[in-house]
Each structure stands twice: as C-alpha cells, then as structure tokens.
Amino acid sequence: MSLQWTAVATFLYAEAALGASSQAFRKQAEGASQAARQYLEDNDALRKQLQESGGAPSPTRDENETLKAKVESLKEELELSKKGEVWGFSQNSQNSQNSPKSRSPGEGRERGSGHAAPGPGPDP
Question: What are the residue ranges of helices labelled H in the chain?
Fold first, then answer.
C-alpha cells in the first residue's frame, strides 16, 4: 500500500513540475509575442513617417561616384589577396628581393627609424 502512495506522490510531483514548466514557457511566449507586436507597430509607424516625408533621401552624384571608386579599389584589393599578394609583396616567391621572408631580421632598416632591431640587444 505504501508503494502505491509513493507512486501517486511521485506522479503528483511530476505533474506539478510540468505545470510550472508549462506556465513558464507560456509566459515566455507571451512576452516574445508582445515584443514582436511592438516591433511591428514601430516598424509600421516608421514606414508611415518615411512615406510622409517623401521617401528616403537619395544619395548625391558625388557620393555615388565616390562609392563606385571605393568598390572598384576594394575589388582590386580582393583580387590581389586571392592571388596571394598583399601590399605589393608576393607571398609565393621565396627568392624575390621584395619578399619579407627573404630578408634577415633587421635588414633594410635604418638606425634611428624608431623601430628596435630584433635580437639580444645593442651591438658592442
């Protein structure tokens, strides 16, 4: 008989836990729904304001030309990066004089340039 009461109590506890969980999910869904409604209302209000003001301001011809030039330079830079060339240096050429990998550390730097040469310290 006590085993039956234990089973009943376990089932009641599980039902209460599921009920609380379900209630929490319902509140969360209601909050998300309310936020979505508010966003839609705000979006509609902004669209109405935009239509009343005559639409979005169109960019000027100078802005368009500047943006087109920037797009072209970015396309060229992208092509160079695809080929493995960065800032005019070829990453594929190991024997190239311009390749940073072919120089020893500190080579090509002038003294007093503001950059410390790598190494253990100043020459004696």
Answer: 2-52, 61-83
3-class secondary structure, 96: coil
Whether the full predicted model's pTM is greater than 0.70, yes or no, is no
The verdict on residue 1 lying in a domain is yes
Dihedral pair phi/psi, residue 89, rounded to 5°? -100, 135
Task: Note the pLDDT tens digit of each residue in 46-87.
Answer: 999 888 887 666 678 888 899 999 999 998 888 888 777 555
Q: Please state the rounded mean pLDDT for residues 95-123.
A: 50
31 Cα distance to chain centroid: 28
Q: Which amino acid is at 20?
A: A
Cβ–Cβ under 8 Å, residues 56 and 50: yes
- Residue 20: how many other CB atoms lie within 10 Å: 10
Two tokens, residue 50: 């935009």
Structure token pair of residue 95: 């024997």
In a domain, 25, yes or no: yes
Total number of domains in the chain: 1
CA distance 4 to 97: 88
